[in-house]
Amino acid sequence: MKLWLKYLIGLVVGIGLAFLVPLMGTKAVESVSFIADIALRFIRFSLLPVLFFGISSSFFKLRDERMMGRTALWTVGVIVCSTSGLVLLGLLSALIVKLPRIPITVEKLSETPGVDLKQLIVSLFPVSGFGALVDGAFLLPVFIFAGLAGAGAVSDKVASKQAIGLFDSLSKVFYNVMSFITEIIEVGMIAVSCKWTIELMSALKSGMFGNLIILLAVDTIIVIIAYILILRFLCHDLHPFHVLYAGLCAFFVAFFGGDSNAALPLVMRCGKESLGIRRRINATVPTLLNVFARGGAGMVVSISFVLIMRSYSSLGVGFGDALWIAAVSFLLSFVLGNYPVAGPFAALTMICAMYGRGFEQGYLLLKNAFPIICCFAAGIDVLTNIFGTYIVGVKTKMVIHKEVSQYI
Angle 196-202-206 (CA atoms, 0-180°, nearest 5)? Predict the structure, then answer.
């Protein structure tokens, strides 16, 4: 049975159970939430070892073959173009479609969440390099440490021959462990989709967020169509739907789990085993896109802040405000690498604080809907990762095409 079909069956069962679990009481709902969290943690369990050894080997090969510059150029291009396009899509859709205003709340939080930029920079360089292998949320430190190790090995190939051979071997071993985990975790997807459906029903029950969720769903469909068309003309791919088909499992995990890090193992699996992307690309590019290509979060933030402005004031959003929202949403998306879960919520608190003028607590208007809103952002970000990695692989000629029948 195909892997995506196993995941789909788990999702359908979980959605069905979501109509029964709330009837069993609060303890049952809490138990489902706990199991869903464990399932997502289990998917991430072997991710850091795979990334460290895989990125080290990939950097060695890319630098040795003088492919580093070309790969980096295409990766940066994907990050900038996708993020700017998604933020613009979110802003335009929010301005064109006038969502119903949300009643102002007097609720306040004792501590405002947000992104600590100083701490983010400090976390890039732990006191010990091996400290980069401890934090499973922020993947950039392990990328830097592994990249330096792999690139440095090129300077003395004789001395580093055994080390690179060991890294390459361990990369394959931990990849097999990761593959095994993703094969059996479809049972956990029952709890993940059950929790998601309960949160969706809770958001819809209030009657305030239905139109917002519909708008996000329509924007997601537009993003999928846009990516397919880009692949058709940029890569001259006559059958671009195969990339979407290959990435279904990763999209399922991100969209229903709201966790981009938990979806990364499946992005790497579909890249290697379905799309035929070579390991030197498939280890490095998805990690960078996971950290920096957060256009889905930027899109959600721009839509949410326009809705907050219209809820607070009937004057509408001026051209200057629209440009400011687009620019700030674009920039904030690049500092969410430490937030694989609920990154858009952290960014929204920052944009509300930066705008000021009484909007500092505006993010509280969407607090009850943000678990679902963040799932849309994570799903779009993973789609960007899948399509972006494939584009980089094609443009660097690092793809060995396979028949669709051979996809996992």
Answer: 145
How far is residue 218's CA from residue 221's CA, in Å, rounded to a whole number? Answer: 5
CB burial of 247-284 (b: ≥16 within 10 Å; e: otherwise) equals bbbbbbbbbbbbbbbbbbbbbbbbbbbbbbbbbbbbbb
Cβ atoms of residues 164 and 363 within 8 Å: no
The two tokens of residue 130 are 């091996």
User: Is the per-residue pLDDT at 10 higher than 70?
Assistant: yes
Q: Is a pLDDT exceeding 60 seen at residue 110? A: no
Residue ranges of alpha helices (H) inside 97-209 are: 117-123, 140-153, 157-184, 188-205
Buried-exposed string 359-372: b where 16+ CB fall within 10 A, e elsewhere = bebbbbbbebbbbb
The position carrying tokens 């949320």 is: 137
CA 360 to chain centre: 26
Quick: pLDDT tens for 274-322. 998 988 898 899 999 999 999 999 999 999 999 988 888 776 778 888 8
Please state, in angstroms and rounded to a whole number, the distance separating the CA atoms of residues 265 and 263: 6
User: 120-129, 144-153, 226-235: which has the minimum mean pLDDT?
Assistant: 120-129
| C-alpha distance from residue 22 to each of 25, 28, 55, 199 (Å) | 6, 7, 44, 11
pLDDT in tens, 145-182: 888 888 777 777 777 778 788 888 888 898 999 989 98
The answer to whether 369 touches 203, Cβ cutoff 8 Å, is: yes
Q: How many CB atoms lie within 10 A of CB 316?
A: 12
How many C-beta atoms surround the C-beta of residue 302 within 10 A?
31
61 Cα distance to chain centroid: 27
